[in-house]
């Protein structure tokens, strides 16, 4: 499990995917989540099932696809910033804030 | 994670309205990039975005001046995105100097990028929801003018007209 939180950014988990589906589908959330679990063969408790779940969300309805996209943006941000933090710690004077290379 | 913020952004009707557009069409992207480039040029700003603010992330659908991890991710976490404030306010949102503004001084996005000032206007959908924003971001402290605001409002209007042509049936 990746526990690094560069700039306070936590890597999304399966729990975050479940919360997102429940949030944007409101009353239909539990049913949509159950269908996604069935489609992926996951129980929802797996620590390593997020990629499969994101693929299923992407292929599901347009709203679930947006949830997958939002999670993917956070995952990519986390991956990129964690990698940068390993090379240059955020507190370093050479961190991206002073190099201006990030945007 | 910022559950309260995600709940405020993740209103089902608003997210469903965003999902009603084909945001992944490459021609739409090209056209929105051109709008961002125009706004950046007219306002002499290094960065301009057209974005949708989802429940947990800002999704950039048109841009000028974006590189690095933001370009790789095609967005930013919602809690770091200044456009989140524009969407939640439902009206133009301005930051003169994020480094000294107590609302934004701790924002990692501003710290990382060195960007300091922001002006954004909301993209209002047919259902009346603020779906996203069109903005410019500058590396210097900046007081934006009414003319700057008019340029962004024009860009936002053009963006919504374009998006309307990419509604999913």
TrEMBL record, chain A:
Highest taxon, organism lineage: Bacteria
Protein's UniProt name: Uncharacterized protein
From TrEMBL, chain B:
Originating organism: Actinoplanes italicus
Gene3D superfamilies xrefs: 3.30.450.40
Name used for this protein in its record: GAF domain-containing protein
Domain GAF: 27-153
Alphabetical list of InterPro entries matching this protein: GAF (IPR003018), GAF-like_dom_sf (IPR029016)
Pfam families cross-referenced by the UniProt entry: GAF
Superkingdom, natural source: Bacteria
Signal peptide: none
